[in-house]
Amino acid sequence: MASSSMTTRVMKEDGECRSWAELPSELTLSILSRLDTIDILENAQKVCTSWHRVCKDPAMWRKIVIPRDIGDLVYDLKYVAMCRHAVDRSQGGLVEIDIWYIGTDSLLNYIADSSSSLRRLRLGVCSSVTTDGIIEALVKLPSLEELEVPRCRLMVDFLKVVGQSCPNLKTLKLYCEAFMRPRFVYDDFALAIAETMPGLQFLQLVGDLLSDIGVSAILDNCPNLEHLDLRLCFNIKFAGDLEKQCSERIKVLRRPEDSFHDYPYEISFYDTDASEDYYPEDDYFEVPSDHFDYDPYDIDDGPFLDGGFSYMHL
């Protein structure tokens, strides 16, 4: 953004140049909303006064994205502050949030307390979020339709809470970051899903320990299921009528041996003895709630690139 004349001009159909700032606010909002949260707060809102005004509109913040390309920055409080500020700007209208790395129990519950209408929640590699923290948040999100969380930290009781607290849930993705070839069968997760989530349409259980019994229970109790991802679930044999059931019921079936080249998470493969406590608990890092009294992203004055203001208020 070296020159405002380069960043704030657009060519009209008749060849005449006009300012980006002259675009209707609805069109500007539609364009800027395609940026992730960091780009909006660090760049877009500082371009000109009209863009800044649009970026303050709660309609801009129906979706919040903290992207994965920030790297593993769970200790970088700047991004946590950005996420909180974006939630504040939504004024309760947040519908979708996609967070990579920076999630903590306090941040997750801050989101839930402010966004009871949230419909989609994705926690990508948020190693500081605990099972109890997720449960505490989910009971406040009755409108949730899509949930994506790590499988390795979950318990059967967690899945039951999800089913009971989120009756509109249509998509459940339990992602896997560490995999070892199964030495035992564990259908309890699958049975909990079958018992409490009858409205599911999309289910991802990559690397799970379920068997044919668990798959059958899910098919019997989730009549709307259309997409079933069972990659790396090597306890499943599709014996008896299960193969036919899946073929007739499921529109998109990812089998245990299918490629996971399109899987968004890196998986570490291990070949050690398995046991029921095979997922160790990590030491979690929690951010003090009073850390966020200072908000550097609540910019009401410039400087903007169009020269609208010359003073930055922090």
From TrEMBL:
Organism per entry: Brassica carinata (Ethiopian mustard)
One Pfam family, short name: F-box-like
Record PANTHER family: F-BOX DOMAIN CONTAINING PROTEIN, EXPRESSED, F-BOX PROTEIN SKIP19-RELATED
SUPFAM superfamilies xref list: F-box domain (SSF81383), RNI-like (SSF52047)
Organism classification: Eukaryota, Viridiplantae, Streptophyta, Embryophyta, Tracheophyta
F-box domain location: 17-64
Listed name of the protein: F-box domain-containing protein
InterPro entries, A to Z: F-box-like_dom_sf, F-box_dom, LRR_dom_sf
